[in-house]
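May I ask for a protein sequence together with how it folds?
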Amino acid sequence: MTELLFRTDPYLTEASARVVVHTQEGGVVLDRTLFYATAGGQPGDSGRIAWDGRVLPIATAVKAGDDKIALVPSEPVALPPVGAIVVQHLDWARRHKLMRMHTALHLLSVIIPLPVTGGAIAEERSRLDFDMPEAPEDRDTLQEHLNLLVDRDLPVTDEWITDDALRANPGLVKTMSAMPPLGSGHVRLVRIGQGRDQVDLQPCGGTHVARTGEIGRLRLGKVEKKGRQNRRVYLHLDS
């Protein structure tokens, strides 16, 4: 099992680890990792690992089964040997944009309170798909409300509940396409705001900023029709 350092501190950018195994596909599995693995519409992290004066560029990270994460090299070069101690260096500029974007999409689901049918996160432009028969009439007002949530500088925190607690509260799940993965006995919730200022609470395994003010200015992009009742709404970082 890979220890998920990004789960306890998403702002950590450098850490040592031990190589546990190489995957058949040429990936490197560490005993603990800074690198978020592709999941939930969020791409895997990139960066590099270093050992004995050598550097291995990492293009992305993926799940490798049995609670392991594999780091995928960006080029076919020699891998650090099993048992080696390496230092992980995260591409922080990219990760931070993904954290800002992911948190911003949670806010988008607040100002458009409709079931979510899909989504994808990228560094400059992301999107959510909604069960939305008609396109929104006043995007300027929606964008204003979105940025007002950013300006409130609300805290973003997480907590854990049991699988049974989530099954008993299906309203926490905004996505129509799939339930959060169950079976481990617990599910992570991400909360935006606290007490009477809470605006969102939903299951999520991704990385997020600590406060909404860190997101920066947001711009709503185009709205595309993707089926009889499906609309795709794009969101851009403007700063």
Summary: The chain has a mean pLDDT of 92. The chain has two domains: 3-90, 95-237. Residues 95-237 form a domain with the Threonyl-tRNA Synthetase; Chain A, domain 2 fold (CATH 3.30.980.10). The chain is about 20% helix and 35% strand.
